Amino acid sequence: MKILVCITHVPDTTSKINFTDNNTRFDTTGVQFIIGPYDDYALARAIELKEAGGASVTVLNVGLADTEPTIRKALAIGADDAIRVNADPTDSFFVGAQIAEQVKAGGYDLILMGRESIDYNSGVVHGIVGELLGIPSISPVMKLEFEGTKAKLAREIEGGKEYLEVSLPFVAGCQEPIAEWKIPNMRGIMSARTKPLKVVEPVAVDSGVQLQKFELPPAKGSVKMVSADNVAELVTLLKNEAKVL
Amino acid sequence: MAILVFVESAEGKIKKTSLEAVAYAHAMGGPVTAIALGAVEKSELENLGKYGAQKVLHAADEKLNQGIIQAYASVLAKAMEDENADILVLANSTLGTPVSARVAAKIGASLASNVAELPATAGGFVVKRSIYTGKAFAFVELKNQKKVLGIKKNAAEANEVGSPISVTPYAVQLADADFSTSITSSEKATGEVLLPEANIVVSGGRGMKGPEHWGMLEELAKTLHAATGCSKPVSDMGWRPHHEHVGQTGVKVAPQLYIAIGISGAIQHLAGVNSSKCIVVINKDGEAPFFKAADYGIVGDAFDVLPKLTEAIKASK
Ligand SMILES: Cc1cc2nc3c(=O)[nH]c(=O)nc-3n(C[C@H](O)[C@H](O)[C@H](O)COP(=O)(O)OP(=O)(O)OC[C@H]3O[C@@H](n4cnc5c(N)ncnc54)[C@H](O)[C@@H]3O)c2cc1C
Ligand SMILES: Nc1ncnc2c1ncn2[C@@H]1O[C@H](COP(=O)(O)O)[C@@H](O)[C@H]1O
């Protein structure tokens, strides 16, 4: 089984978000970048499948050269090799088209992604790739097991889950508890330096969306404290002041 | 400019977020055609007229009773063509979002999910999207003739603006290729208020000490007709089911009222609740970071405050 894991390079979940250039660019000052947390689940499951035997794992990122440390981290966690499509990933359709192109070129039969990126939060790239390749796309996937080429999955639905069966090839958008996040060990970090990382140029895609500007939400007002001995006052405030009861 | 709205249902009832999608399309200026797939109660479909639909299509084929992403996308793409619709509106949900991606790729539409407000159409068609898990917004122009909009909870208010209308059966030709995924079984919470839809959420963290104490939290939730939620460690430890976990890597909620009990307020948790209208925090540590994100706070022991709060709410009814 040839597995392709698509990873994003995103600000650490504790980052403060700011913009520069008249609110048209993300401000990277002081920001740590990580593998997207959902992509990290996808990667962890892929490594488990590899360890169980008979699978290879390639990681793919659509991004500029600054994403390479993040890609190396995925190699350190255990992926065999990596591809970087050399482009600024500004739009889901553009990214999806690049991934679909690499799947065709590399003949991957299992494409694992995160359920969503934590920068754009679109939750759509897996569906776009599935549609462009004419294969099933399933998300959000909480469990993924194989019996031969047949996969058994659990998918989250509002207030519960659904169990599905599907055959390779397919795309899955992953989330917990599909696997536990893995941390690279020293050996992994050493070997990651020499694992192949191929840089390819993007294919041309007509983009249907154009970013205009970013905006931060208004600052939160200060908290009103109520004494634990006067809980009834809280109820009154929720009714008459906040008007939410 | 006709607008097609995909309405989702659960146990035969139209979801509230889908009513908001109909209201959103109506506010955009319609004309609005709503489409429902699989088994839905007839009166529920007729009622879509009240929220602004001029036409209601129902594809009742029982193969659509299950939410197969590919099949749903094919039916919606065909319906857009049949109805001459340029825009598809749907609610972002665990089903709606993946379906929207495939429809957009199929028909070459500009796609935006997590749309927070009505579009501005003065200079191009511009939508405001929520990004960085609620920490920021992006304004994006959708340039293609065809557009697919996934809307966030509360992007429009589901007000009654019309009256019930009759339902038009919609015949579909389903391709076997769209059913290569088969759903073998499902587990659903029944009768409970669903977390992503809830107007009030009562959520517990590690400060609740153990699953055996959730009874008092559920009691408060029941009194408020609220859904229950939790922090990530609580679901990781198996105290609560996974689908209740709120935050950056869990459910993003946007209720009128979010009550957090024994949750420290880590930034990853806040990312899932920052769209709430009002936040109440109950924590025994006055320095807990959650108070900075709260509208109202009580410093106190959950096991003391929770039952008192439930009583005070009952008394105020
Ligand atoms: C990449 C990443 C993603 C993450 N995603 C999420 C996410 O989606 N959602 C999420 O929740 N977390 C997430 N986390 C974890 C997050 O960082 C915190 O660890 C977690 O939210 C803490 O949960 P908690 O507040 O329940 O527990 P704690 O931090 O242990 O806090 C418990 C709180 O309870 C209070 N308390 C204790 N006893 C009582 C009592 N008797 N009465 C009242 N209060 C009491 C304490 O004062 C404390 O504030 C993520 C972490 C990472 C690294
Ligand atoms: N630039 C990118 N490079 C590689 N994979 C990506 C990229 N952007 C998104 N993805 C994948 O698509 C998933 C969903 O992203 P999104 O649709 O942006 O929420 C992510 O979790 C990744 O697995």
Structural descriptors:
heterodimer; A: 245 residues; alpha/beta; Rossmann fold; nine-stranded mixed sheet; two-stranded antiparallel ribbon; 15 strands; 33% strand; globular; B: 317 residues; 2 domains; seven-stranded parallel sheet; five-stranded parallel sheet; 8 helices; 17 strands; 27% strand; binds flavin-adenine dinucleotide; binds adenosine monophosphate
Task: Give the structure's gist in a few sentences.
With 245 residues, chain A is an alpha/beta fold. Chain A has six helices and 15 strands.
Mind explaining what this structure looks like?
The complex is a heterodimer of chains A (245) and B (317). Chain A has one domain (2-218): Rossmann fold (3-Layer(aba) Sandwich). Helix content of chain A is 27%, strand content 33%. Chain A is built from six helices and 15 strands. In chain B, 25% of the residues lie in helices and 27% in strands. Chain B is built from eight helices and 17 strands. Chain B has helices at 16-28, 42-46, 69-82, 96-107, 214-224, 232-236, 267-270, 302-316; strands at residues 2-7, 9-10, 13-14, 32-37, 55-59, 85-91, 110-115, 126-131, 136-142, 147-151, 167-169, 182-188, 200-204, 227-230, 257-261, 278-283, 296-299. In chain B, the strands form four sheets. In chain B, strands 7-10-6-1-4-5-11 form a seven-stranded parallel β-sheet, with helices on both faces. Chain B has a five-stranded parallel β-sheet with strand order 14-13-15-16-17. Chain B is globular and about 60 Å long. Chain B starts with a strand and ends with a helix. At the A-B interface, helix 3, helix 4, strand 9, strand 10 and strand 11 of A face helix 3, helix 4, strand 7, strand 8 and strand 9 of B. The site of flavin-adenine dinucleotide (FAD) has 26 residues of chain B, from helix 6, helix 7 and helix 8. The site of adenosine monophosphate (AMP) has 24 residues of chain A, from helix 1, strand 6, helix 3, strand 8 and helix 4.
